[in-house]
């Protein structure tokens, strides 16, 4: 009886030891990875990602405290041109596929690194206290004199807005009212400050402001699908950091933050 009990206890102890060794091995691996990541990481990202990425940076720094992230926020078209001109960039996060397509055609992306990271929704917004605009058709009212929109050639949100308005047969009638902005954040600011009566931004931008209200979402079939592609630049100086950060952005922690900021995740 004692022999059987002793054998049973030995089996239990061996099992516990195996579990502990496995846990230590995993922990050691994670710690080793965190310790191995250090230095700089240059991220060029669409202006609409600013709020989410700033929050993500705080979480990422807790996991990899030795990595120093530098963000460059602007319209996707502006960032594309900077990369083409040799700007030091490790990761490009675009709000439009066409900008990433152009860089890929020029062989400026690291092979196999490109992926579709996020989606979004295009909305019409007005000032929080606006009573004159309750639907898209109200933009044609004489009382609405200025409408904020990103430059369609360089700002994806502006491109999507133009596509939608053209398909809804509203683009030409509103021509004299458009106030062009360098990026979608500037459109948001124009509406927040009352410099324009309405504007077209992403849902993620509107969700982060208490100075505007969403009038309505534009029909998804009125414009191209809103996709945020991401990729590592071929000439990235900090490739290991770039690969780790891009992997992190696809993980549960980052995806929850992005969802909270109004983005559509996988």
How would you portray this structure in words?
This protein is of the alpha/beta class and 266 residues long. The chain has two domains: 37-119 and 226-260, D-Maltodextrin-Binding Protein, domain 2; 122-222, D-Maltodextrin-Binding Protein, domain 2 (3-Layer(aba) Sandwich). 42% of the residues lie in helices and 21% in strands. The strands form two sheets. The protein has a five-stranded mixed sheet. The chain has a five-stranded mixed sheet with strand order 7-6-8-5-9. Helix 2 (50-63) links the parallel strand 1 (39-46) and strand 2 (67-74). The longest helix is centred in the first third of the chain and has 35 residues, at 2-36. The model is unreliable at 12-32 (pLDDT under 50).
Biggest beta-sheet profile: 5 strands, mixed
Percentage of residues in strands: 15-25%
Number of helices: 9
Whole-number mean pLDDT: 90
For this structure, the CATH topology of the largest domain is D-Maltodextrin-Binding Protein, domain 2
CATH architecture annotation name of the largest domain: 3-Layer(aba) Sandwich
N-end to C-end Cα span: 57 Å
Q: How large, in whole angstroms, is the Cα Rg?
A: 24 Å
The coarse overall form would be: globular
Helix content: 40-55%
What's the β-strand tally?
10
User: By CATH's scheme, which homologous superfamily of the largest domain applies?
Assistant: Periplasmic binding protein-like II
Low-pLDDT windows of residues: 12-32
